[in-house]
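Record type: monomer structure entry
Structure origin: computed from sequence
Chain ID: A
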Amino acid sequence: MTIEPRFDQTDDTGNREVAGERLVRPAVLRGWRRRCPSCGTGPMMQSYLKVRDDCPVCGEALHHHRADDGPAYLTILIVGHLMAPAIIWAFTEFRPDPLVLASVFTVGCVALSLYLLPRLKGAIVGLQWAKRMHGFGRR
């Protein structure tokens, strides 16, 4: 026997809220794709890391977000945990020249950081929207 979730509210953009709560996973995944956490179609970012004040599609106010340093901390955490073992493995397995090793992994760290930073910021904004934090819950 499966229990279907009870949808109590549908907002003007067609998003259904389960028992008054916004669904966290879809909001975070939409944020990861740098899309509006409410509608999923409008672009969240105005530039590389600048979040728009409002969604151009559904009009959801996004200026409430307080991502602050969270995306940078998560980026450092992820890149460090991926690259540190990779550097150790590459050094012990191939014994490259230290300058080659440093050059290759510097480019890799910068590229991975630039890829992750806006996506993690979007995911954090999506999480804040889903949990109604920092003014996202006001009507």
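Annotation 1: The radius of gyration is 19 Å.
Annotation 2: Residues 78 and 86 are 13 Å apart (CA to CA).
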